[in-house]
Amino acid sequence: MKKMRCCSVTAVALLLLISNVLADGSNESHHVTVRQATGGGRSNRVTDTFVTPSQQELERTGSPRSNANKRVENKYRPVFYKCESAALEEGKPPGTVVSEVKAYDNDTDSAGDIFFTILRAGSEKEFEVDPVTGSIRSSKSFDRDEPAREKIAYVTVKATDRGTPPLEAICTFNVTIGDINDNAPMFDKSAYDESVPRDLEINKLVMRIAATDVDAGENARISYGWDAGSGPDADYFDLDKSTGAIHLKKKITQNEGYKFALMAVARDNGSEPMSSRVRVMINVASSKIKPPFFTDIPEPVSLPENYTSYKTPIATLAAHSNIAAPDLYFELVKGQTEQTNSDETFRINERGNSVDIHAAKALDYEKVTQYILTVRVKNEAGVAAETVLTVSVEDVNDEIPTFMAVDGGSVLENSVANTFVLKVQATDRDATYPNNWVRYELRDFKDKFEIDRNTGDIRTKVKLDREERKSYPLTVVAYDGRESALTLDGLPNQSAKRFQIEVADVNDNAPFFPQSEYFAEIAENADIGAKVSELTALDNDTESQLTYDIVSGNAGLVFSIEAQTGLLKVQQPLDYETTKSYDLIVEVDDGKQKATTKVNVKIINVNDNKPQFMNNNPEHKYGIVENTVPNGPIVRVNATDPDYDPLTAEGPMKITYTLSGSHADSFQINQLGELSIVRPLDRDLPAGRRDWSVFVVAQDELDGVRLENTLEVVVFLDDINDNAPFLDMTRVVWRENQPQGRIVQLNASDYDEPKNGPPFTMKMADTAEDVVKTAFRIEGSPTSSWSLMATRTFDREERKEYAVPIVISDSGQPASLTATSTLTVVIGDENDNPMSDGSSSILVYNYRNSLPDTEIGRVFVQDADDWDLPDKTFAWSSNAIPPPYFTVTAFGGFITMRTRTPPGVYPLKFHVRDNVRQEEADATVTVTVQEITEEAVRRSGSIRLSGVDQEEFIKDTPSKKDLLRQKVAEYVGALEENVDVFTVMSSSPSRNHSVDVRYSAHGSPYYDPVKLNGLTAAHQAELERLLDAEVLMFGIDECLYEKNPVCSEGSCSNRLVISDQQPYRVATNTSTFVGVDARIVPECVCLADEYLSSSSCSATSCLNGGTCTGDASRPCRCPDGFQGPRCEGLDVSFGGTGWAWYDPLPTCASGYLSLTLIAQTGNGLILYSGPTAVPPDTSVSDFLALELREGSPVLYLDLGSGTKRLELPDRSRNLVDGKAHDLEISWNQRSVQMRLGQCSDGQPYCSASSGLVGSNEYLNVNGPLQVGGITADLQKLRLALNWGSIPTDIGYSGCIQNLTFNGLTYNLYDPGYFRNATPSCAGVVLPVQTGGFGWELIIALLVSLLVLMILILVFVAYRRRNRKDKPKDFHDDIRENIINYSDEGGGEGDMTGYDLSVLRMTPDGKPLIGRSDDYGKLLKDEDLRPKRAAPGQVPDISQFLDDNKGRVDRDPDGLAYDDLRHYAYEGDGNSMGSLSSLASGTDDGDLDFECLSDFGPRFKKLADMYGDHSSESEDGEDGQQGGQSGSESWC
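Predicted structure:
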């Protein structure tokens, strides 16, 4: 054996290690490497090395070490060389270092790295180990003393290496908890009180005190003494330091009754002693009184810990009274520790002057080994004596061995016999040998394993093969060294535990692929990282780690393989045109042996290369003369497809040519690539250009995939003289009263090239007015310049401007061109006219009464001069008090309205002074302020007009604004005073001479904009004639045109933006209009998508009385009957003559419309989205319609490029079957589909689809979504908008439910306008099906008959009850008419009946009951009740009655009665008569109200007030029921 080198391992540890490794008897030399972990996380290699026979050497396979870059096989298990018992003082804080374990592993690289873990159950809560260093620290603070008694703890540590498979070793050691002096002695009594005879002899025992200490050793050894505070009384008594016995020290001289007050101290013997004190009172008794005494001194008693003879005394003590009275009283003193009987483990049984001591509870040697019992006896004189009985507890074998929490171990397969596998350990809580001597034996697999009966080491007996068996459930029995005191069967205590022994894998089998060759395909456009194939190799060694690698064939490294999974992926871009296939060799390595397979990867050709043009890009073409169309093509383009493979392709290369770009309509191209001009091209401004571009789009196709490439062709035009010259100025100012002279130099321009332009020749046109010819002349020459001259002076008040026509000729070739330009000469104003009084008006719409201080207009006075404003100053008139709500500026006369100005009419008086002419005048400005609510603005209609500007629209009386207001009131059936035109503004800078107008109308609520725009649009011709303007749009829609400047592609939504801080002002001399700045702003979002994405909830988010919940998944809590996400009503039904208007479909990039149908008839229009009348601009022809034709759905869709009609392939599918059918419609730019929701996939009749062609891509509709029918003339629309086909105009009969668009749920209970529509499907009568008379129909008929009979019986009973209850016949006709209504206001003799239902009017003056309702919100029966005002809002009853009275007056069908009784009614439909007679002037004596008591408890109060007797008295007085014979019965 070689010489040992040791620097970090003690000699003792090394000797122990050597003895352990030699225990197997091997005589081979072993290289033992001792590795100690450091704080760096990796073990240092070979710190201490020696050679010795070792079991590790026996486990070597003999194979050479693998290369450094390969996985190293795990050959050796860890071995502990330091695992020692330790000690820990109680009370140490958590984290205290307890011990350190060390282990080594002779494997190399990562297989030799070791980490430590705590294994024992429970110990992981008490201790923790550093996984690298092996340092053991406490996790808690231990207490050795009562009651915890934590005297010893066991720690099991597992060392595991990082090899494959991982191997482990286990060590267990105990930690002894050391005692510290942390407990003070405790007396067995809280105070002592004894009596002593006055004549007691010196040195006689007086009493005994006792204390115990739960600490151990010297910390528990107690000394007694008197406290210094005891005073002179301590001189009489001697306290034994060791025993606590108190003897009389000197003669007692005190009289009888005296009390000695002493303080005793018990002190332990710890290094830092602890002590406690107790009060001792000794009473001086009569000399005649003697203390009792025990006749026998008790001998110590010894009991086994399993002692259970609780009835048999363990000792008997006798005592003598020592006084005349013989009776004695015994007491077993209860101490303060278990040792002094604090738990009453023992009890006494008194028998006269003797006492028996019994055990009362089970004993436990492991808890208390000895008890000190103090027995006290007292005679009738109160004098006591004490004695001590010591009870020793003998240990018996009553504890069963308990295994440490080790679950199993492992051993490498093929290991030689006697290989160490696992060390099991069990502990026995018995305290003495051999009760706690544990030995071990195996119960099974004794042919495979053996165990050391003393140490618990398990070793193999034979070589094990993992492929034969992977694990063994090995049962180990632990038994102690003496017969059991528990089982009493003559056998020791024992326990058994099963351990799982894993047979760890050794790499002794080569890996292999199931196939010798694999085939895969991948498209050339596959993404980087795309999966090509997944290779899986097999290895009979289950723990082998297989790694994969591509060893050849991977040209360009285009593929990679995941080393651990065998997943073959794309690493570099593929290209079919470069390489069409790859032959890869893939290798698998288990760390020791290898195998290969071949993978053939075929690249699939896809269309991933755009067509390539052979032409230059851009392609330039010269020599084309403008405004001509050349014969034949001007250029030929040629493109090829790089993806075309003639060997695999079917047919020739597919290249198609199209044109794009803003000028594409001026060119055409054929499929040979020949480009031609089809329209003359203009070279010159303003519409022309020198070079015209067109883009040729070449598109290829492969397997349905199309790619495009674009070539720009630029055509350069040659100029011809086709543009006449023109003046480059249009207006010039020449002051009045100015002498004649040169006004301006005239300059001209020509859009042609300079060769066809200047020099120019100018003259005045012969068409000029005579006054122009005499007032102006043109001077100059082509070689110099031309000027306009004034030949006289001018007066602005005579004429403000002159139009001078000037003829201009250019010098172009072959001939010059001539044109006439008009120059407007404006005569500038001078302040040369007098000023006089004037008046004007200003109308202000104050939005929500929120305007800040706002300039609303200017003071106006009569003055022929109109440029003299800077010469004037303005002030309030001295004859009027300035109102507090307005201010005026001294210069300019601008009027400002202050914030919070209340509505009203304000006449303002001003005084104006002309400081140049020294003149004065008065001015009157009438300001009308009206508040406009937010509801009025948001529910407003709108119209866009052309041919009129904003000033023209408000001037004159009546103005165009007033005329529009009158007509809107007429169209929608509202009072003119309830119509507000509150916005007049120029539509946009790009639209010259056009104006946008917004208006609202209301009855009780404000009318929906759908109704306002729809009804107004039906009168386009009349409005254009009346307003002398062209209507561009009803309902301003900035998303109507697909190529709008903001949202040129995709979704578009109209957002109404309202400014509450800045109004929009339009002014003329005598009138100013200050309106609401409300304008439509387009946003590039789909309104439906915004509805879905909105998770916030406001007061207006929940409809129909719903309330916010705060839950994004269900934002609203809805009343009964409203099931939509935001409490929408989900169903509406029609009878074939009705319809309902809803908000238009939003403009979205794609559409998805869904609804549920319950149809009654087979033909009818379900819904229509499109114009209600021929629109002003017929270039927008989009519409969508859905109809039932012979029971089958038919869809019509036109995106502006032609009508597409779509129906199901199987027309025999009839939806009129009494069932609900879900219908789904979807479309995008390229296709449209209609599908029945209940059909399963694959059924041909379920769906129909078709492609869409044309340049228009989105559905742009401005009209309402009409459901159930249509009000438009479809034939007229078809002719005007060029529709290819149209649906039926027959109304739909049945129910429509769950109408949604792109997830937006329509509130079907709230149409903007409707007629003959019902907000429910309850009344829909389903069609009767033929061909069957099943049990279901029979049961339904029987149930119906039963219900009918019950109703008849109820009706008969009710009639009989009414006859019994009525003492007299009623004269009142109880219906919705009031007859014999004697109200004071209307005349009591008027007996004419009136129908109260006329009071329930719609805003157009038509009754709600009995007629088709076309107003407001659809109401269910339970909703036909008076609406409550909003919180904080006072109902305007006066306005409500006035409105209804006005409508009744205008109703041509209504009766011509104007009577107060139309309004002073108690309620329609009331089953009782009028109560107004109670307040009549009629004498109560003439009426009989006795029958009130028959009406029940609700009329009790009236019966008490007006009856002859109270309702209580009438119960016992039947004779009074008749009342007075001559009275009139009110009842």
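Summary: The chain has a mean pLDDT of 82.
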